[in-house]
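During the reporting period the student researcher (J.K.) took over the structure-prediction task from the postdoctoral fellow and processed the backlog of single-chain submissions. One of the processed entries is reproduced below for the supervisory committee.
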Amino acid sequence: MEKFEGYIFTALCSTNFLVSCLLFSKITRVQREPYMDEIFHVRQAQKYCYGKFNEWDPMITTLPGLYLASVGVIKPVVWLVDLTGKVVCSTAMLRFINLLFNCGILYLLYLIICKLHLKEKTKTASRRVLSALSLSTFPVLYFFNFLYYTDAGSTFFILFTYLMTLYGCHKASALLGVFAIFFRQTNIIWVAFCAATVVANKMDETWRTEQSKKKDDKSPCQIPFSVSGVRRVMRFLLEFLTTANHVKAVTLVAWPYILVAVGFITFIVLNDGIVIGDRTNHEACLNFPQLFYFFSFALFFSIPTSLCYHRALRFLQTLKKQPLLYLLITGLCLLLVWKFTFVHKYLLADNRHFPFYVWKRIFQKHEAVRFALIPAYVFAAWNFMDTLKSRSLFWILAFLVCLLAATVPQKLLEFRYFIVPYLLYRLHMPLPSLTRLVLEFLLYTAVNAATLYIFVNKTFQWPNSPAVQRFMW
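J.K. obtained the following structure tokens:
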């Protein structure tokens, strides 16, 4: 980090933390008691604070990483400043842990951006810093910095895991991946993604060697849409994964991740499933439209950095050149939407969440709406892939497989599940111009301001309950 860039980044970190503290103070004053899922998380963390590690709330479905981390931070502070009474492990004290995670997330985002865009070092200091700041205020993630949810800690450890992978510290990466899994079991997918990037790097090297021998100009960054190109890649994958030397080379590097995978499989066998606690409302299914929802979500939040006139024009030209391919893709999407759309009862019943209104005001307007949106899904998916075309083919394949695993089995449409895949997507886009980054930051700030204002000021009550209800992600 250059000296001047270091000063700017430190100043922005301090300003970000100060603003977050002021917002935290306001939110905590208006909502002193635990809200929504906080009721279970706070109650469980307080049991840990009092040393009751053998008591567990059956409504909690995640491992105790959040509570262990909270107690690990709070207890030493309480001992140092000699705090006693209700302030120890209070709701406000527990929520504050997520503000600390937010500071860490900002720093990790900056380090990852520096590592991923190493070749763009010249004259990009302001763009790197602003990218990190903007992504740390990503609305869905930023909102949960002020409540006691698992999202901030989960995201922190996944980003930390990936950073260590980028630096080749695979033992440290695997250990951090275990911490991430303790916050949310589905993070095993993103630990697997870290391992997959190691395999993808080996494949890239082998592919380049083979293509240079064949004097083929095609790089691994190009996605072969032709039938012969796909066949060639499939043949290469089969040969690579069945060649002893390649498997040995990958295993020697990726063995820490393999140990994590073995440990996780053992946990699933002993636990008789991935979910602990209440399993009835967390059943897996093949909800393929979840992938379409994610592409739409990614398009909306990346509009300032990914969308432009030339890209839209290129999409139209692609449609014109390959109409049969896109007709086939559209037909497949129609089939998936028709046969594999699942709607969780929480989505239809809980009017405190924004997805409830998205579903009610868009998808429930008419049966045909979910099919009418397919062209938009196709464009969102194309835009998603086009922004990642600078990455290697095998990295893209690894990311898409993990994206499928992270989204499709989820029955509930929950924007929080999109946080990690969106951040990874955005981090791997080419570094946007300063103007685009400013527009992205303004978009995120506007959405944050709106959602926090609504949460604080636009309260309501259910007819059968005197409790104050608030709108949230």
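The committee noted the following: Residues 3-30 form the longest helix (28 residues).
J.K. will present the remaining backlog at the next meeting.
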